[in-house]
Each structure stands twice: as structure tokens, then as C-alpha cells.
Sialate O-acetylesterase
Amino acid sequence: MSFLGTDQIRQHTTNVYISIYLATNQTQTIYHNSMNKCFTASVFVVLFLLNSFRLSAEVHLPKLVGDNMIIQRDTRVNIFGTALRVERVTVVFMNRIYAALPDENSEWVISLPPLPAGGPYEMEIFGKNTLKIRNIMIGDVWLASGQSNMEWKLEDKVTNHQIEIANANYPDIRFVDVKNTISAQAETDFESEGWRACSPKTAGKFSAAAYFFARDVFKTYNVPVGIIQAEWSGTPAEAWVSTTTLKQFPEFKDAAEKLDKCTVNLTELSTAYTTRLEAWKKTVPKIDRGYTGKRPWYEKKIKDEETWKPMKLPCYWETAGLGGYDGVTWFRKEIEIPRSEAGNTLTLCLGKIDNEDITWFNGEKIGETKEANQVRKYTIPGKLVKAGRNVIVVRVNDTHGNGGIWGNSADLKILSPYYSVSLAGEWKYKTAVDVSRMPKYPTELRDQNSPGVLFNGMIEPVIPYTIKGVIWYQGESNATRAYQYRNLFPALIRDWRAAWKQKDDFAFLFVQLANYKAAAPQPGESDWAELREAQTFALNEPNTGMVVSIDIGDANDIHPRNKLDVGKRLFLAARKVAYKDSTVVNAFGPLYKSMTIENNKIHILFDNASGGLKSKNGTLKGFAIAGYDKKFYWANARIDSNTVVVWSEMVPKPTAVRYAWADNPEGCNLYNAEGLPASPFRTDQWQGLTFNAK
């Protein structure tokens, strides 16, 4: 709702005719600027009479509108709240008066004209009550969203975090945190501590990537910066998309429609879902071959062990031959216990498991955990520990997304005070429930991973607030469905822009997945590589920018501690995409453009390489090449101006090249002249691991 004109205010004040100055895009006023005192007196009289005629309402403000807030510069800005219907709300800001009437939902909004960066200012809002908002700054507002790598706080042992926090004295950088909330309906507000100015006392709780980004914006452009943090660890993209958009996807349509029709409150819905989920879980053991045979698979000796297949752990099983499989898988491993440990109590460490496990040692159950991705540690009673052959059996039930025994190799072991043996490496596995026989997993609202619930709970209440753009770090939770992400992620970008009604002016910057997990000794398939490829599809949307982080990850930690470079690269992208900074020649790393085949070599041409290409730390690495048989071999590669030439004696007639195509590709050292890393890519379109995963 736009502000009211002078004639409208006269009409709604029961024939009280007092001329007042209202904000417009014009510079005309009814008083000369030197008559501010007279103007202030007029404002006071108008507000006094408005209250006298009891036309005002009890005003309530959302968490975004409060002390220390940053409002977006150089564009129209919404200030909003709630009040009783058909009763006036009056706002005074920077010597201008605005008025609004709440709508049928008791919501009101006034629109401020474009204002330059500056502050601090105060705002007064009048109804039956009077509210004063202090220390307002006008600058740039960014929404920081995604999953845990965006959520990762500065104090969470980020590189040099103690020094960074101690020096974080930037009172004109402000953060507001949207508390984690799921909702079946579109919310109008969220739980929060409100806007907090950046200082050594507060900075530790800020998103590290967003903090480094905001600091560079502030230092470079000398404008106040506001960051709205709305992120949740481990969440998939579909949770952040509106039901309107989700209905365009057959795999999400049912869940979106059910969410729209939901009329019960969230607690009741979650309780009902839990009941259905427990019923589902009870049906699975009845069709689990590990239980239904003559001899259960948890026994020390079983008849058909030779039919079990090998799998190297730890890993997600989707990356080791079970792509797209959700269900029950049993794992077995034999170990030799020395005589010195026979009869001693041992500790079994299994790392992280997704989702649930039941674990046996020599046929006896020693532990069970239902929480996903928790490190498992079980006590093995001394009476079960025998000298010589011992057998560990783990039954893993994965309900959705990634599955398996994963995490760090160092966490997979058996130990006692004087004994330790690694369990990382080859295990035997066998699936126990065919996907076709699995009862349908409940798709109703269950948690923060459900389609649409985070858009309703954490994005919807932010939408009225005018922002400069979005920085986004997410994708890990969609890696097993990378082909789906090709369409889902661009749909999310369009969805948010439509919701904000900012169309293509809405800058959207995102971080490509970093390197993670064990390095592959030979070229192969990778769902994380497919997800990185899917992220590049979003670059077809206008005003987007992708930050490559393939060189700053951590093989042993999904949360790399180097968030400084992430923030710097996001800011460099912002300079190009959002700020249209003409001093920035190139803000992105080399991006695959095309290839040509000449004899036994393939020539790769790149975008974002106008200044040439370079190799860091010696000869180019990370390239693989294949012929029509689709078998890839490590390849030789050399730079030729802004192209790379790739070949191998093993492939005399090459057809395809891949670069950094792995979960954790080693030695990726192709950069452009600006020192930005090349994005992983492939030239082929051969069907990948996640092609059919939904």
C-alpha cells in the first residue's frame, strides 16, 4: 500500500484541514526548509488530532522493522506491520509523514522513496501506541541463505576466527537472524533477537561467509550493510521453494498440494506424521530379507556370504553402486582380534550413519541409533570379544537422500586403552528390501527437509523487506539428485524474484560445492561433480553469479574452515553482477565453452579467460579423457593462450574430456589471469549417477 496524499489525509481526519508535507518523488514542499520548527509543530498537531478522533490503531512491528535496522538505498523501500483493520497508521521519517490503512488481514505497508546511503536516523510510528525506532542506517541489504556452510558461524573455528572476531568492529554492518522455523502456512513474522550491530561481542554468531562478504562491501563502497540470515543446516533446495512453484514438478506436486490444504497447526501435523512414520518403520522389517530368512543376517555365520558385494567405507552408498537407492542395506566385516584383547571391553566407532542403524557384534546386538548423521560409538562387552575371527554387522535404514556409513575414515575403528584397529576399507554389503517392494514413505510434512516448509516459515516473512540481492550456499543435500537440481535451482531463483516482485534486478550469487571426501585414484563418476554441473545451469538466469570453491574445500570436513575466500569471491561476483563495477574486468573463473577435436587431441575453449589461462604449482592436473568406449584415463594437458589442449596415449581417438570430475578432485590448478579457479566440467552428456534420481 502506498502512502496517502494530502487530500486523503484531510478526508480521513474528520474534516481537520491541516496541510502537511508528504514524501513524494518531487522536491516541492509547503514550507521552506528553514521553517522546520513550523513543520514539526504541524506534524505534532496532526498526530494529536488523529489520536483525539480515535482513528489510530495499536501498531505491531515485525522483527525486520526495529532498532539498528538497515534499509535499502536508492530504491523504494517497504516499511510494514500489523494493526486493526480500517484504522490509520502514521509514520514519520526524515521529516516526512506517511499514512496507511491496514487491509483485511490487518497488515499495513508504506513505501519510502529512494534515499541515499546514510544515517543514523530515527523513525516514529503512531497509532494508539507510539513506537520509536532508533539507529536506522540506509545502505545495502543482502539475504544470506542455504544450508550449513552458509550457517557456519565465525566462532565455529573458522580460519583465524579469534583474530577476525577481535577485529570485527564495524557498527554500520548489521545482522538479523531468522530463527529456524518450519510452517505449513505462509508466516508474516519470525523469531529473532532483532538487528545487531557488528562488534567483537556479536560477530562470532554471524554467518562467517556472509560476514566476510559484508565487510568487503562496506570497505569498498563505504555504505552500511545489512545481512538477513535465513539458513538451516542439511536442508534441500525444495524446502526453500514456494508450493506454487513446486507444483510444476511432478515429484513435488503431491507434497505441495497437501501443504496448501493443511489446516491443522504444525504441532498436530508433526504428531500425525510421526504416527504414520512409526507405522511405516514397523512394516519394513516384515519384508527385510535380513530378518525373514531361515538364518538372520546378523549372525556370526551365514550361508550366502559369498553373494555379498564389496564396498569401501566410509562413503555414501549412492557413490558406490547404489545410486538412487533408499531402503535397507546390511554391512558385514570380519576382523582379527589378538589374544591380548580377548575378553576385554572394546569400543566400536562407526563414524556417521544416514539414517538409522542397528549394530551387532558376533551375533549379539550392541547398539541402535535412529538419529541421522550422528557419530556412532558402541560398547562391545568383553564376553563377546574372542581371539581370532570376529564379525561386525550393521543394518542401515536410509529413508531419503544420501545413505550409508560415511564421514571421516579416522572415525571408523575398534579400540581399547591399549589397542586400536581401523575399520576403514572394504566391507561386504547386501540390500535387504527391493525398492519396488518398499512401502511408500510418508511424504507429508515431517521436518525442515519437507518441500515448501522453509519458504513458508523463513522466506515468506522476509519478502516485504526490500533487498539488494541474495548470497546462497547450498547443494550438498541435493547431490544425490543432481539432475533434478538442474531445473529445481533455477526455479528457486525465479520463484524468489517473483515473490519479491523485483524480476531480473534481483542479484542472485551462489557458491559451487567445494571439494570433499576421499580422493579417487582413477577417473570415475561422482554425484557431487554432477551437482556442481547442475549449479552452472542457473547461470542461464539473468543477474546471477557462481563462485567456484573447488580449491578451498576440505577432504575430511564438509564444512571447510576457509570462509574468508568464499566471502571474497562472493563480493567479487557482487561487484560485477549487482554493483556493475566497471573497474572489475573479470569476476569469475574459467568456464567451459566448447571443444574441438584435432587428431588425437581435444582443444578446450573457455569463457572468463580473456586475459589468458595459467597453471598453479606446475603441470596441469585433474584432466581425464575418453573415447567412444566411455572409459576415462588421466590425461596430459597444456595451456595454449586461452585454451587447454588435452591428450593421452591411452586414447588415440578421443571424444570427451572431464576436468575435476570427482567428489574431491586432487591438484586442480587451472586458473585465469585474475587468479580465479576453473569450474569443474565435462564435455560429454553421458548418463550420470543421478540421472533417474527424484
In short: The first strand starts at residue 70 and ends at 72. Residues 1-55 have pLDDT under 50 and may be disordered. DSSP finds 13 helices and 34 strands in the chain.
